[in-house]
Amino acid sequence: IPDAEVTVVSGTKPEATQAVAEKYGVANAVVGYDAVLERDDVDAVILATPTGMHASQTQAALAAGKHVQVEIPLADSLADAEATLAAAEASDRVTMVGHTRRFNPSHQWIHQRIQSDQFHIQQMDVQTYFFRRTNTNAKGEPRSWTDHLLWH
Protein backbone atom coordinates (compact mmCIF):
# COMPACT_ATOMS: atom_id res chain seq x y z
CA ILE A 1 0.00 0.00 0.00
CA PRO A 2 1.63 3.27 -1.05
CA ASP A 3 2.54 5.55 1.85
CA ALA A 4 1.61 2.92 4.46
CA GLU A 5 4.13 2.09 7.14
CA VAL A 6 4.05 -0.73 9.67
CA THR A 7 5.03 1.01 12.91
CA VAL A 8 4.67 -1.76 15.48
CA VAL A 9 4.39 -5.53 15.81
CA SER A 10 2.57 -6.99 18.80
CA GLY A 11 2.73 -10.45 20.30
CA THR A 12 2.67 -12.38 23.54
CA LYS A 13 6.29 -13.56 23.61
CA PRO A 14 8.91 -10.76 23.72
CA GLU A 15 11.72 -12.58 21.91
CA ALA A 16 9.52 -13.97 19.14
CA THR A 17 7.79 -10.62 18.66
CA GLN A 18 11.13 -8.82 18.42
CA ALA A 19 12.37 -11.40 15.91
CA VAL A 20 9.36 -10.78 13.66
CA ALA A 21 9.85 -7.01 13.89
CA GLU A 22 13.52 -7.36 12.96
CA LYS A 23 12.79 -9.77 10.10
CA TYR A 24 10.39 -7.29 8.49
CA GLY A 25 12.18 -4.07 9.41
CA VAL A 26 9.58 -2.82 11.87
CA ALA A 27 11.07 -0.39 14.39
CA ASN A 28 8.87 -1.30 17.36
CA ALA A 29 7.88 -4.57 19.01
CA VAL A 30 5.53 -4.64 21.98
CA VAL A 31 3.91 -7.25 24.17
CA GLY A 32 0.20 -6.76 24.62
CA TYR A 33 -2.56 -5.39 22.45
CA ASP A 34 -3.26 -2.39 24.69
CA ALA A 35 0.28 -1.16 24.02
CA VAL A 36 -0.59 -0.96 20.32
CA LEU A 37 -3.87 0.86 20.85
CA GLU A 38 -2.20 3.48 23.05
CA ARG A 39 0.23 4.51 20.29
CA ASP A 40 -0.30 7.76 18.40
CA ASP A 41 1.61 6.43 15.37
CA VAL A 42 -0.92 3.63 14.79
CA ASP A 43 -3.84 4.59 12.55
CA ALA A 44 -5.02 1.06 11.78
CA VAL A 45 -4.60 -2.47 13.09
CA ILE A 46 -4.64 -5.85 11.39
CA LEU A 47 -5.99 -8.57 13.67
CA ALA A 48 -4.63 -12.01 12.85
CA THR A 49 -5.34 -13.44 16.28
CA PRO A 50 -7.28 -16.45 17.59
CA THR A 51 -10.98 -16.41 16.68
CA GLY A 52 -12.17 -15.93 20.24
CA MET A 53 -10.33 -12.60 20.44
CA HIS A 54 -11.57 -11.06 17.19
CA ALA A 55 -14.75 -9.35 18.43
CA SER A 56 -13.32 -7.84 21.61
CA GLN A 57 -10.12 -6.70 19.90
CA THR A 58 -12.06 -5.14 17.02
CA GLN A 59 -14.31 -3.29 19.45
CA ALA A 60 -11.29 -2.09 21.47
CA ALA A 61 -9.54 -0.82 18.33
CA LEU A 62 -12.63 1.08 17.23
CA ALA A 63 -13.01 2.58 20.71
CA ALA A 64 -9.37 3.71 20.47
CA GLY A 65 -10.08 5.40 17.13
CA LYS A 66 -8.23 2.88 14.93
CA HIS A 67 -9.27 1.49 11.56
CA VAL A 68 -9.50 -2.33 11.67
CA GLN A 69 -8.92 -5.23 9.31
CA VAL A 70 -9.80 -8.46 11.13
CA GLU A 71 -9.27 -11.95 9.80
CA ILE A 72 -12.31 -14.19 9.41
CA PRO A 73 -14.43 -15.00 11.27
CA LEU A 74 -15.46 -11.69 12.85
CA ALA A 75 -16.69 -13.45 15.99
CA ASP A 76 -17.48 -16.89 17.31
CA SER A 77 -21.04 -16.03 18.35
CA LEU A 78 -23.91 -14.10 16.82
CA ALA A 79 -24.12 -11.83 19.87
CA ASP A 80 -20.43 -10.88 19.59
CA ALA A 81 -20.76 -10.29 15.85
CA GLU A 82 -23.78 -8.04 16.38
CA ALA A 83 -22.01 -6.09 19.14
CA THR A 84 -19.00 -5.62 16.88
CA LEU A 85 -21.21 -4.49 14.01
CA ALA A 86 -22.86 -1.95 16.30
CA ALA A 87 -19.44 -0.64 17.36
CA ALA A 88 -18.36 -0.37 13.73
CA GLU A 89 -21.53 1.45 12.70
CA ALA A 90 -21.17 3.89 15.62
CA SER A 91 -17.57 4.60 14.63
CA ASP A 92 -16.24 6.77 11.82
CA ARG A 93 -13.45 4.24 11.26
CA VAL A 94 -13.17 1.70 8.43
CA THR A 95 -13.84 -1.83 9.64
CA MET A 96 -13.11 -4.76 7.32
CA VAL A 97 -13.37 -8.52 7.69
CA GLY A 98 -11.21 -10.51 5.32
CA HIS A 99 -9.28 -13.64 4.59
CA THR A 100 -5.94 -12.33 3.40
CA ARG A 101 -4.05 -14.90 1.37
CA ARG A 102 -1.54 -12.70 -0.45
CA PHE A 103 1.39 -13.76 1.74
CA ASN A 104 0.86 -17.50 1.36
CA PRO A 105 3.86 -19.04 -0.41
CA SER A 106 1.81 -20.33 -3.34
CA HIS A 107 0.29 -16.89 -3.92
CA GLN A 108 3.69 -15.23 -3.62
CA TRP A 109 5.09 -17.67 -6.19
CA ILE A 110 2.39 -16.72 -8.70
CA HIS A 111 2.78 -13.01 -7.92
CA GLN A 112 6.53 -13.14 -8.55
CA ARG A 113 6.00 -14.80 -11.94
CA ILE A 114 3.43 -12.18 -12.95
CA GLN A 115 5.68 -9.30 -11.83
CA SER A 116 8.64 -10.71 -13.77
CA ASP A 117 6.53 -11.10 -16.94
CA GLN A 118 6.90 -14.88 -16.92
CA PHE A 119 3.12 -15.20 -16.74
CA HIS A 120 0.56 -13.06 -18.52
CA ILE A 121 -2.83 -13.44 -16.90
CA GLN A 122 -5.95 -13.46 -19.04
CA GLN A 123 -8.11 -15.32 -16.55
CA MET A 124 -7.33 -16.83 -13.18
CA ASP A 125 -9.20 -19.29 -10.98
CA VAL A 126 -7.66 -20.10 -7.62
CA GLN A 127 -8.52 -23.13 -5.53
CA THR A 128 -6.95 -23.86 -2.18
CA TYR A 129 -6.83 -27.30 -0.62
CA PHE A 130 -6.14 -27.85 3.06
CA PHE A 131 -4.53 -31.12 4.05
CA ARG A 132 -4.51 -31.76 7.78
CA ARG A 133 -3.02 -34.60 9.75
CA THR A 134 -6.02 -34.55 12.07
CA ASN A 135 -9.55 -33.34 11.53
CA THR A 136 -9.66 -30.84 14.41
CA ASN A 137 -10.64 -27.20 14.62
CA ALA A 138 -8.77 -24.25 16.13
CA LYS A 139 -9.85 -25.36 19.62
CA GLY A 140 -8.49 -28.89 19.11
CA GLU A 141 -11.99 -30.36 18.95
CA PRO A 142 -13.25 -32.74 16.26
CA ARG A 143 -14.51 -30.82 13.22
CA SER A 144 -18.05 -30.78 11.95
CA TRP A 145 -19.44 -29.23 8.79
CA THR A 146 -20.49 -26.20 10.84
CA ASP A 147 -17.02 -25.57 12.25
CA HIS A 148 -16.99 -21.75 12.23
CA LEU A 149 -18.68 -22.17 8.85
CA LEU A 150 -15.23 -21.92 7.32
CA TRP A 151 -11.76 -23.37 7.75
CA HIS A 152 -10.95 -22.49 11.34
Query: For the record, what is the CATH homologous superfamily label of the domain at 8-98?
Result: NAD(P)-binding Rossmann-like Domain
Name the CATH architecture of the domain at 8-98.
Answer: 3-Layer(aba) Sandwich
What proportion of the residues form beta strands (DSSP E)? 5-15%
Rg of Cα set: 18 Å
Q: Low-confidence parts lasting 5 or more residues at pLDDT below 50?
A: none
Q: CATH topology of the domain at 8-98, what is it called?
A: Rossmann fold
Tell me the number of helical segments per DSSP (H or I, 4 or more residues long): 5
Mean pLDDT: 89
The residue fraction in helices comes out at: 25-40%
The shape, in one word, is: globular
Main sheet overview: 3 strands, parallel
**What is the N-to-C order of secondary-structure elements (H for helix, E for strand)?**
EHEHEHEHEH
Report the structural category.
alpha/beta
Order of strands in the sheet with most strands: 3-4-5
End-to-end distance:
27 Å
Report the strand count.
5
The top-level CATH class of the domain at 8-98 is Alpha Beta
Notes on the structure:
The protein is 32% helix and 14% strand. Helix 3 (54-63) packs parallel to helix 4 (78-90). The longest helix has 13 residues, at 78-90. The strands form 2 sheets. A 3-stranded parallel beta sheet has the order 3-4-5, with helices on one face. A two-stranded parallel sheet has the order 1-2. The protein has 152 residues and is of the alpha/beta class. It has a domain at 8-98: NAD(P)-binding Rossmann-like Domain (Rossmann fold, 3-Layer(aba) Sandwich), CATH 3.40.50.
